[in-house]
Amino acid sequence: MIRRVYTFGGEGNFILRATGDGNEKWAHDFKKLFSIKTASQSQK
């Protein structure tokens, strides 16, 4: 069985990692995909 960990960060990053070796399988940056600003970007 392949085990995975999905992580959705507060800055808009969605990441899939394999639990066996910790390697990142894929990642999506929702800030870029949807042209949005996060709270930390709005403070600049």
The domain tally reads 1
**Distance between the ends:** 45 Å
Strand order of the largest sheet: 1-2-3
Main pleated-sheet profile: 3 strands, antiparallel
Beta-strand fraction estimate: 35-45%
Helix content: 10-25%
What is the approximate shape?
A: elongated
The gyration radius over C-alpha positions equals 13 Å
Q: Roughly what is the average pLDDT, rounded to an integer?
A: 87
Helix-and-strand structural type? alpha+beta
What is the tally of helical segments?
Answer: 2
The topology string of helices and strands comes to EEEHH
Find the count of extended strands (DSSP E, 2+ residues): 3
Oligomer: single chain
The low-confidence runs, each spanning 5 or more residues with pLDDT under 50, are: none
